[in-house]
Amino acid sequence: MTLKAIDYKKDTPICSDIVYNKIKENKIHNVGKSTIRIIKKLVDDIEAESGEKFIRMEMGIPGLPPSRIGIDAEIEALNNGVAALYPDIQGMPALKHEISRFAKLFLNINVDEKGCIPTVGSMQGGFATFMTVNRLNPKKKKTLFIDPGFPVHKQQMKVLGLEYETFDVYNYRGEVLKEKLEEFFKSGEISSVLYSNPNNPSWICFTETELKIIGDLANKYDVIILEDLAYFGMDFRKDISKPGVEPYQPSVTKYTENYILFISSSKAFSYAGQRIGMMVISDKVFNIKSKHLLNNYIYDTFGMAMIYGTIYSLSSGTAHSPQYALAAMLKAVNDGEYDFLAEVKDYGDKANIMKKMFTDNGFEIVYDMDENDPIADGFYFTVSYPGLSGDELIEEFMYYGISAISLSTTGSERLEGIRACTSLIQREQFPDLEKRLKKFNEHHPIY
Ligand SMILES: Cc1ncc(COP(=O)(O)O)c(C=O)c1O
Questions:
Q1: Whole-angstrom Cα distance, residue 61 to residue 421?
Q2: Domain architecture of the chain: domains with CATH
C-alpha cells in the first residue's frame, strides 16, 4: 500500500504555519528522532501559540492522582522533622521490611531486607546497577538490552561510557529466544541483561516459556538479569492484586537467583514526582564477591559496593520523606488494605478504546502478540500507518494535534511504528482524538 501525497496542510486541526515555525524555532531537524522531552517542549510551544490542546501521548506520566496514603505519611514525617536528617544510604528499616514483604507477597520470592534498597526513582536504580555490575569481571563489561526499550537506559550507558548490545525481540518470541540470547552470551562479554516487563514501549509481556529461557541461560552463562518492573501488575489479563495468593507477577525470579529488580513507584502508585523506586537484589547477587570490585570500591562484595560505593557517591541515599510515603503505601498493600491496581486498570480500558479508534482509521498495531495471545491493553501501545515511517508519522501528527514518540528511538527495528501512551488523555478528549484521526485518514488515503 502506498500513501497518496496531497496538499493537506491547509485544513489541518492545528494551523500548519504555527507548527512549521515552532519546529524551526526549536531547531529540530527531525521531529521523529527527538527525545521525549524535546517533543514535550515543542508541543507546549505549539499549544501556547495556537491555543489548541493536543492529544498528548508522548510522555509516560501517570494520569492519576497520587496515593493519599503516601501523601499523608510524607506530611507527617515532614512535620516530625525528617527533612533535617540525612537518610540512611541503605534505606530506612521500615521501608526495607515492607519491600521484602512485597517481594514475598507479590512475586513469591524470599529476599533479605539488606538487598531491598530505595533509590531516587527506578531510574537511579538502573544507573547505579550499570555502573556496579559491569565492574565485577573485566571480561564481562557489556549489558545486553532486549529491545524495544526505555531510551533513557541507553542514555545512561552512554553517559557512563559503557558498551552495550541490543536486539529487537519482535522476531525472537518463544523458543527461538534461546538461540538468539546464546549468540550474545557465548561471547563471554555480557555481564547483564535488561528488559522491562510489561514492556515500555510495546506492551509485550514475556510468557513463562520466555522467562524460563532467560532464567535458565542466566544460570548457565552466569549473567545477571536486570528486570525492570516499572509497570508492576499492569498486565491486566492476570489479576495479581491479592497479596500472597497466586497468580504472582510473572518474573524471571521463578527461574534464577541471578537477578536485580527495579520496581518503580511512579506508575503503580502514581508517585513519579517524588522520585522514589525500589531496587531488589537477590541474596545470591548481593553476596557475590569479586576482587575486581576493589579497583573502584573499598568492598569486594557486590551489595556493599552498590550501597556504600555507588549509591553513596550518586546521592547519599534517597530523600527521607518519600521513603515514609512508600513504606506506608507498601504496608497498606501488603496488609491487603489497599488495592494499588484497582485505579491503574483504567489505563487498560482507555487503551482498548483508543486502539479501536486508530485501527478504524487505517492504522495498524505494530507489536500485537505475546506468542499465541494478543497483547494486553495497558499503559502503551504501538501503531503504524501505511506508507509512513514512524519518524514521519510523528511529524505529521503535529499538524493534527497528536503527540507521541517514534519507535526508532527505542531500539526497535519496526521503524514504521510509534508509541502511544494512554495515561494523560482524558476520556472527554476521545471525540477529539477520533475526529483528528479521521481527518488524518482522509488526508492520507490508503490504496
Ligand atoms: C521501563 C521504565 N523503566 C523505568 C522508568 C523510570 O521509572 P522512575 O520514574 O521510577 O525512575 C520508566 C518510566 O517511564 C519506564 O518506563
A1: 9
A2: 9-63+345-443 (3.90.1150.100), 68-334 (3.40.640.10)
- pLDDT digit string, tens, across residues 343-393: 899 999 999 999 999 999 999 999 999 999 999 999 999 999 999 999 999
Residue 122 CA to ligand 1 center (angstroms) comes to 6
3-state secondary structure of 386: coil
Q: How far is the CA of 21 from the centre of ligand 1 (A)?
A: 32
At 129, which amino acid appears? T
> Which of 59, 129, 130, 150 gets mutated to test ligand 1 (max ligand atoms within 8 A of its CB)?
150
State the distance from the centre of ligand 1 to the C-alpha of 272, rounded, in angstroms: 9
Cβ atoms of 378 and 202 closer than 8 Å: no
Which of 130, 264, 265, 270 is the pocket-test mutation for ligand 1 (most atoms within 8 Å of CB)? 264
- Strands 417-421 and 380-384, by their bridges, are antiparallel
In tens, the pLDDT along 92-121 reads 999 999 999 999 999 999 999 999 999 999
Instruction: Report d(CA 56, CA 73) in Å as an integer.
Output: 32
Give the pocket of ligand 1 (CB within 6 Å).
Answer: 60, 121-123, 150, 196, 200, 228, 230, 264, 266, 272, 277
Nearest CA to ligand 1 atom 12: 230
User: What is the per-residue pLDDT for 115?
Assistant: 98
Read off the C-alpha cell for 172.
525472537
- Beta strands (DSSP E) in 253-371 are 259-264, 277-281, 364-365, 369-370
Render pLDDT for 50-71 as a digit per residue (tens, 0 to 9). Answer: 999 999 998 888 878 999 999 9
